[in-house]
Amino acid sequence: MGATENSTASSSSRPMAGTGNDTVPSSSTRPSIVNIGVLFTYNSVIGRSAKPAILAAIDDVNSDSSILHGTKFKVIFHDTNCSGFLGTVEALELIQNDVVAAIGPQSSGISHVISHVVNELQVPLLSFGSTDPTLSALQYPYFVRTTQSDYFQMYAVADLVDHHGWREVIAIFVDDDYGRNGISILGDALAKKRAKISYKAAFSPGASKSDINDVLVGVNLMESRVYVVHVNPDSGLNVFSVAKSLGMMTSGYVWIATDWLPSLLDSVQPPDPNTMNLLQGVVALRHYTPDTDLKKKFVSRWNKLKHDGTSGFNSYALYAYDSIWLAARALDVFFNEGGSISFSNDPKLQETNRSTLHLSSLRIFDGGSQYLKTILKMNFTGVSGKIQFDLDKNFVHPAYDVLNILGTGPRRVGYWTNYSGLSIVNPEIIYTKPPNTSTSNQRLYSIIWPGETASTPRGWVFPNNGKPLRIAVPNRVSYKDFVAKDRNPPGVRGFCVDIFEAAINLLPYAVPRTYELFGDGKRNPEYSELVNQVAENKFDAAVGDITITTNRTKIVDFTQPYLESGLVVVAPVKEAKSSPWAFLKPFTLPMWLVTAGFFLFVGAVVWILEHRLNHEFRGPPRKQIMTIFWFSFSTMFFSHRENTVSTLGRFVLIIWLFVVLIINSSYTASLTSILTVQQLTSRIEGIDSLISSNDPIGVQDGSFAWKYLTNELNIAESRLVKLKNQDDYGTALRLGPKAGGVAAIVDELPYIELFMSGSNCQYRTVGQEFTKSGWGFAFPRDSPLAVDLSTAILQLSENGDLQKYRKKWLATGECTMQINEEDANRLSLTSFWGLFLISGIACFIALTVFFLRVCCQFRKFVPEGEEVGEVEEIESATPRRTIHTTSFKDLLEFVDRKEAEIKQILRRKSSDKNHASPSSDVQCHSVP
């Protein structure tokens, strides 16, 4: 089967690889000829493009004396004919020729088999077409991939899916190593984006159109409309031909093809109109190769390279060309580092008497390990771009073109790199900037989808298999206003059902559905079990009063909450006994004491400021004390009869009256609240007091509150009592804990509001709502219907329909207010210390100004040179006489004098000074 061909093609203008790794020939002996094996399928899309590229590369290498310095490559071609068995036989025959490297094969399945052979004989295998990611495993050390790995391509597909908001795809693939392993990586990549492969539709290699038809008919009955096609280029068009005949290339469908499709289209020039008609709206990925001068020169000489049966140019031709150059450049370095070409027998392959296979002709390449290391260290620029390997033996800087097939050919709508994801910027520019893989920065140009629509398809439909959605509805025995069994279609009714039906009617597509009751109708069902059955796909959805909790969101998807909820405590209430001292409750004891003290303090300050000017604040001591007390407390009612005449007194009084106004208003409001709201009270004040007590607690049967109280609040189960309906609620609360009832009930707010609306205000919620949650509709994880219904529920909320349905079903009474604790209405000093501080500062300023003024008068009254003391004027018919004193009592007597008398004496003293001689004594005379 093998054929040996020497390279004969030549060209005067051949593209050369980059200048990296140029070396000077060593003095070691170089062989004149080195055998290179080439292994691929001639009659295939990839083979027809690869063969002329390989021949051109061999000719270019042998013609360039600066590469191998006299050593020539002798090429040995073998055709694998797309057969794993023949590929193995051909590989054995190939290696019998003592080749130093094997180029190919193009098939991942054949590469898996041949890799075991080259591993044993230590011959590097440079594959330009095997993209299976698992070939990079440590199991195949001598396998070197000289093209992009499908590992990166599948992550590019996952980014495409995530970019458009799809959560499920169907994989259509050829069931061989290439197809299975690629789709396996796709599943991992989608999982990181919270998406998944909902179904894997596989068909055998070389499957007929009838087999493919059976596969596509099956997937067309499923929910997802996003198809990822990962097949061989030689038979891949059959998938789209059958899809076209089944009407699967119309609006609403999404087709994503891997690099096999662009390789096929590029190899057929000009494109076939019939083929392009099959592919309208398909999105495909193609290996990105930069438009360097080397590539342009190679493309320009392509028509001269083609031989009989050669197809058009595609990316695999570039990788095949660079594979030869990689082998040549690495071999040159290998020689320069002292390597030599030699082969030795493998002890494991020695013939035995029973063997009819001539395995002894297979020999180990002694320098294979060194040559492999040299290959993996190479770094140069080829026609396909940068040739450099990472630690996983993959090309660095992997990138793909994102193509949209439209009209007569593909149109590039962007790029993908593992560096920054989807972008409309050229990868060469992207790699010069910091990486940016943020979801908001992923961008592509507009795509025309199948059906010639520019709007992104939803990506899913209801399964076209005649089965409507099975929707579970709780079969409640209490609070049937929320959801209950109904004799009329659709078999259920209630607030929750009306909300669900209204949201469904807002969707732009029909949702076939049937309702199934969950529960035996004798007691409320366990809602956690209902959610579990939705998670296990026993139901397609659950509609009802289902609380969104953390544990439930881990296994199902909920819609946007349509009703707010939360746990509250409801307890019986009774009238509090009237107290004759209720009028003292508005203020705390410190507040009463400070207020009384300030009344007296302000009264005393006003008396001091008014005493010298206002006759109403003068008189005997007993009368003045009574005046202070009367004036102080009369300001409480703004009924003080004494007028203030001094500026300082009025200043203090104005500020104090403002303080009194605030205090009076606060007292009145607090007393009103205490005498009205606090007429009803309960021994249970909230969840904290309920936990600290040992009284039994009522819980609705089937509610999540049971587990919340036991698991989160550590309340003993022995204290919890299950209540089935509203009658049980009322009975248990009326009996109380001492008579076999409960002290309080813990339940969700919507139930409690409905319960209290018919209780004649015998019960109230106490304390605060101690959890926050809501009710939603449950769907299996990643259900697209949950997202659409959330949007519909928001629309119902915005247009007011949610409130209309709530008024229709959930009429509530006026007894829903909470009981406030008594101390909450009592006013403490904390609320008023600022007012007292302002009043105190005003009093201090007024007193300071007053005493400074008095001291100034006193200094004028007693001139310098006299003994410090008070001078008293004695009224008599005798001549004036002067009395000198130094007692503090005299100072107080001075302060006690009227302001008018002091001013008159000071005027007389000033007049006497003007008429007296400088040596005369200053005398103070009494007022006549």
UniProtKB/TrEMBL annotation:
Q: What SUPFAM superfamilies does UniProt report for this protein, alphabetically?
A: Periplasmic binding protein-like I, Periplasmic binding protein-like II
Q: Which cysteines are joined by disulfide bonds?
A: 761-815
Where are the stretches annotated Disordered? 1-28, 908-928
Keywords, A to Z, come to:
Disulfide bond, Glycoprotein, Ion channel, Ion transport, Ligand-gated ion channel, Membrane, Receptor, Signal, Transmembrane, Transmembrane helix, Transport
From the Swiss-Prot or TrEMBL record, state where the protein is found: Membrane
Q: What is its main location?
A: membrane
The Polar residues compositionally biased stretches are 916-928
- Coiled-coil annotated residue ranges, if any: none
An example molecular function term from Gene Ontology annotations: ligand-gated monoatomic ion channel activity
A Pfam family that the UniProt record links to this protein: Lig_chan-Glu_bd
Q: Which GO terms describe its cellular component?
A: membrane
Task: Give the domain of life.
Answer: Eukaryota
Q: How does it sit in the membrane?
A: Multi-pass membrane protein
Q: Which residues form the Ionotropic glutamate receptor C-terminal domain?
A: 470-812
Q: Where are the transmembrane segments?
A: 589-609, 651-675, 832-852
Q: Name one GO biological process term.
A: signal transduction
**InterPro entries in the record:** ANF_lig-bd_rcpt, GABAb_receptor_plant_PBP1, Glu/Gly-bd, Ionotropic_Glu_rcpt, Iontro_rcpt_C, Iontropic_Glu_rcpt_pln, Peripla_BP_I
Q: What does this protein do?
A: Glutamate-gated receptor that probably acts as non-selective cation channel.
Which family is this sequence assigned to?
Belongs to the glutamate-gated ion channel (TC 1.A.10.1) family.
| Name of the protein this chain belongs to | Glutamate receptor
